[in-house]
């Protein structure tokens, strides 16, 4: 596979340009073009000869949007195709303040969560920083008429969540490079506060992330209140206990001053009766955190069932009564296979 220019920081790109015997200002032209989601070929300010030279070593178009699915509620789902033919998916959710894009960090996943479609075929490979960034660059380009903000701040995608396929902390170095590049001045310059990273709870990497000093929103997929129940749906629970996860979250809060989040997917008969609600309150009471309840998107390969709407609100009510800050996530894009990995799985099947 060829290398990817979108992996590089601006300083690295400048170095590359100088090493190719080009003038420094070419780096700016190249960088700006790339940040606008252009292919190398599509950057008109650069000479044909130079672009051909670049393409001998670098991918012209690291990712393309293979298909777009439109939900009745405005949500868009994408199937992205990488240069080596691998597929990942992404979602764009439209809000008043701007667009939130959900990105994938790996092709497949090796965490093996029982409710998740992304992990069905295991991990195929990690995505590079530039491959992750490119998901956003091409979606921004697709929506270039929906820009909010002005000047350098102008963009369609204002918020990013690392909640697509893959476990971001299992691809730590590339994800970190992606985070540094996307928040960089002069690049997309997305504020870390507008970025959420979701992990199944790889504790040592949570500490490492806390020490990086990037004040993003850390979200942990909890989905249970005791280790035994958790291990039934999440194999990673055998390696890291809930108590260790909570300690790591506390450390994250101390280091960054950011409150943290828990995702709790409601699985009927598994984790969401009254005793679980009480246990969750007991576990999280008084902590600087917020709980996002998620309705299970039933995956046809698995026989787990979603909790009914009425019971979901009842569960939420019990958490609130117990003093937790919690919300039941609005279900969006259900008509287009909103859940992680469902789209890719059905695509591969056909
Ligand atoms: N690997 C990261 C990101 C995964 S996706 C993590 O584990 O957090 C983001 C969230 O969606 C996670 O909380 C994940 O557990 C949840 N999820 C995955 N499949 C789901 C499904 N079918 N229904 C509901 N939530 C699901």
Q: How would you sum up this structure, described in words?
A:
There is one protein chain. The chain has 350 residues and is an alpha/beta fold. It folds into 2 domains: 5-55, DNA polymerase, domain 1 (Orthogonal Bundle), CATH 1.10.150; 63-349, TIM Barrel (Alpha-Beta Barrel). It has helices at 10-19, 25-35, 48-57, 129-142, 172-183, 203-212, 227-233, 242-256, 274-284, 309-321, 342-349; strands at residues 63-70, 76-82, 87-95, 98-102, 106-108, 123-126, 157-162, 195-199, 217-221, 260-266, 289-295, 326-328. The strands form 2 sheets. It has a 10-stranded mixed beta sheet, covered by helices on one side. A two-stranded antiparallel sheet has the order 5-6. It is globular and about 70 Å long. The model has no long low-confidence stretch (mean pLDDT 93). It binds S-adenosyl-L-homocysteine. S-adenosyl-L-homocysteine is lined by residues 113, 115-116, 163, 167, 198-200, 221, 263, 265, 294, 296-297, 299, 339-340.
């Amino acid at each position: 596979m060829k290398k990817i220019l979108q992996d590089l920081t601006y300083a690295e790109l400048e170095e590359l340009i100088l090493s190719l015997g080009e003038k420094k200002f070419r780096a700016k032209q190249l960088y700006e073009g790339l940040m606008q989601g252009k292919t190398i070929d599509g950057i008109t300010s650069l000479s044909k000869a130079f672009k051909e030279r670049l393409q001998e070593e670098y991918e012209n178009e690291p990712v393309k949007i293979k298909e777009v699915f439109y939900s009745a509620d405005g949500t868009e789902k994408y199937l992205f195709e990488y240069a080596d033919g691998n597929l990942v998916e992404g979602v764009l959710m439209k809000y008043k303040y701007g667009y939130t894009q959900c990105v994938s960090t790996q092709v497949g996943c090796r965490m093996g969560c029982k409710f998740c479609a992304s992990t069905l075929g295991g991990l195929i490979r990690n995505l590079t920083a530039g491959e992750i960034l490119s998901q956003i660059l091409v979606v921004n380009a697709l929506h270039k008429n929906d820009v909010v903000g002005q000047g350098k701040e102008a963009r369609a995608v204002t918020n990013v969540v690392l909640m697509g396929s893959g476990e971001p902390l299992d691809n730590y170095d590339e994800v970190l490079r992606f985070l540094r590049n996307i928040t960089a001045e002069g690049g997309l310059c997305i504020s870390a506060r507008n970025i959420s990273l979701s992990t199944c709870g790889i504790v040592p990497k949570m500490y490492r992330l806390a020490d990086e000093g990037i004040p993003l929103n850390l979200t942990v997929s909890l989905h249970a209140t005791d280790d035994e129940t958790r291990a039934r749906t999440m194999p990673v629970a055998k390696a890291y206990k809930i108590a260790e996860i909570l300690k790591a979250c506390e450390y994250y809060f101390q280091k960054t001053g950011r409150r943290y989040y828990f995702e709790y997917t409601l699985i009927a008969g598994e984790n969401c009766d009254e005793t679980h609600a009480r246990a969750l309150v007991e576990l999280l009471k008084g902590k600087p955190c917020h709980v996002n309840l998620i309705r299970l998107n039933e995956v046809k390969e698995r026989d787990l069932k979603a909790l009914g709407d009425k019971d979901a609100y009842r569960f939420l009510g019990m958490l609130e009564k117990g003093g937790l800050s919690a919300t039941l996530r609005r279900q969006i894009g259900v008509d287009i296979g909103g859940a992680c990995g469902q789209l890719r799985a059905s695509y591969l099947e056909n």
